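Example record

One chain of 217 residues, shown exactly as stored in the release files.
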Amino acid sequence: HMFRYREFLMERINSEELSSASANKDLLHFCGPINFLNEMTDWRLDLPFQKLSFKEGQKKQSPTFSPGWIRNEILGAGRLDGLNNQARWIVRIMVNPGARPSEIAGTKLSHFDLTAKIPLMYILPEGRQLKNDHSLRSIPLVGLSLEAARAAVIDAQREDRDDVFPRYFGKDGISAAVNSFFLDNGLKETDETTLYFIRHNFEDRLLEADVPDRERS
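Predicted structure tokens for this chain:
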């Protein structure tokens, strides 16, 4: 059965539906409970599951926006004017902290502390489910991202609502809306670049700054 499962994973790797690293994680999750039972009972089976793992090749390079494109095109004067306010604020908030668009769209007023010495946006599992445990975090806001957050918070306070971005809160619409706008307005640097890759650019800038891997993650 394990060989058949491995063949199934290999077919998905060959069809580029799955990376070798993801396949190894699937094997780890599948074999974990069996290893646990083997340790906690008197089975005493020899289970060489590690021999089933796949050799991980070089990580596929994800497309990304260049810093110049973000600065001069996406953030150029008037380039985002055609977007509604909430979508435009989300894009601008993404630029410096590298947060996911869905994380920003899921924020509430209580998730922002903009009067502190270091203004913060908190990514919390309140009213939404986070992607993983590492997603629970606080993010410093600076520059135009801080300006956009302040504008969004003021707008929510003025309308007496808790959701800062109600148009996209709990929905998957922000990426589709912005990607369509980017396509129609010549803001895609390549055919592959989408809103999410602004986050990749932030990671690239951390690499260039020699930020240690643990802190970068």
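Notes: DSSP finds nine helices and three strands in the chain.
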